[in-house]
Design goal:
This protein is α/β, with parallel strands linked by helices. It is built from six helices and nine strands, in the order βββαβββαααβαβαβ. It has a single domain, classed as P-loop containing nucleotide triphosphate hydrolases (Rossmann fold, 3-Layer(aba) Sandwich), CATH 3.40.50.300. Helix 4 runs parallel beside helix 5.
């Protein structure tokens, strides 16, 4: 999949978050969007995801050079962000089974296997509301990374993770990012060190 931005910009009221962004994000490559806190990294990621509309320009989603409607983009995109909520009344197992009904997981990946990979086997029947912030972040990463989508968007993926959790994230990227279009929004190099291209959002102000 290719996500193409042409003269794209986003503003809130009279303040432009970014403008005149011309870029192609191409399947099989990994990209980082960098910049200080409050610079608009998360906003750009949401525009790429189709979660919010751009204020100018256009964004296209192409599969084998064939454009697909923006309203269908969610079928091809998985996203993990600190601000997306989990269904906390469910147990971990129930939540993953629920998620699977809407977005299938990678082939040959089982829910017990995912839970084990995330290091959450002892919490599989525990309601997510009782998880620590670090455990919840592992779940958010797992539901995105293990979804069978060509595009993976990650916003500050190591938020609330301890050293062991950061190592888990880096291993997930090593094992499950190949062949996918990955975009990481972050100002922490340990989160995007594997990315081949770096986009400083301050260049589009």
């Amino acid at each position: 999949m290719t996500i193409s931005l042409t003269d794209t910009g986003k503003r809130f009221n009279r303040d432009w978050i970014f403008r005149h962004l011309e870029y192609q994000f191409i399947s099989g490559n990994q990209y980082a969007i960098t910049g200080p806190n409050g610079s608009g990294k998360s906003t750009l990621l949401q525009v790429i995801a189709g979660a919010i509309a751009s204020s100018e320009g256009k964004i296209e989603y192409l599969i084998d050079t064939i454009p697909h409607p923006a309203e269908d983009a969610y079928k091809y995109i998985s996203i993990a962000t600190p601000y997306l909520e989990l269904v906390e009344e469910m147990t971990l197992r129930e939540f993953l089974e629920f998620h699977q009904q809407f977005k299938p997981f990678l082939k040959a990946m089982t829910i017990p296997g995912m839970i084990a990979t995330l290091g959450l086997e002892k919490a599989r029947e525990k309601q997510i509301r009782y998880f620590s912030s670090g455990m919840k972040q592992r779940v958010k990463l797992g539901q995105a990374v293990f979804s069978n989508t060509p595009v993976l968007l990650l916003d500050e993926p190591c938020t609330n993770l301890d050293a062991e959790g950061v190592s888990l994230y880096q291993n997930l990227m090593k094992d499950y990012s190949n062949g996918r279009l990955v975009i990481v929004s972050s100002n922490d190099e340990q989160e995007y060190r594997f990315c081949e291209e770096v986009i400083d959002i301050r260049s589009y102000k």
